[in-house]
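Cross-check.
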Amino acid sequence: MTEDGMILVDKPAGITSFGVVARVRRQLTQQLGKKAKVGHTGTLDPFATGLMIIVTGKECRNASTYSKLDKEYEATITLGFNSTTGDPEGELSAISDAQPTKEAIQAALKQFTGEITQRPPIFSAIKINGRRAYDLARKGEVVEMPERLVTVFALELLDYTYPEVKIRIHVSSGTYIRTIAEDVGKVLSTGGYCSQLRRTKVGEWSVVGSLAIEA
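Predicted model, tokenized:
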């Protein structure tokens, strides 16, 4: 680790992005013998794994540059259920036990390529009137999330074994894969949520060769 620079971390499941930053800050502070300045360049949900670009020292001023880069993910959409949070951490409700064909899955996915409009999940870090949406949602407040235009550059079906649809997706910054999963479930009339998510690339940087959090 260096005082000023960037670190590629492979985030494990079950830890927040802020938790990753705290661990790196603690380790770097010990190495430098003074309090280190550490930040991240885009959150990953606690259930998600994969690449996080951590910036340190003077490089923190460039954090927004990294956060605006395209992202690539591998994700699993589980059909048949909806989740209150769009992921495994929410309350699940059964929607349908219908089993779409592979052709129906491919047709549904085609609807989510190019420039699309999506409404981010209420359980997200987006700020509404200066407050995090997830804080408002947890307090039971009504949250109206504004729609946004995002770009899906590529969306590939990797495998389909009901109820799991595995995809690889390359998107612009600000795209919510949880929302993609939910919207695919709506198109198929089966319900759906993002049960697994792994970020494999941010811009030119890949999770291959990144450091495990223990390192």
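The CA atoms of residues 6 and 55 lie 4 Å apart. The chain is about 20% helix and 35% strand. Passed to J.P. for a second look.
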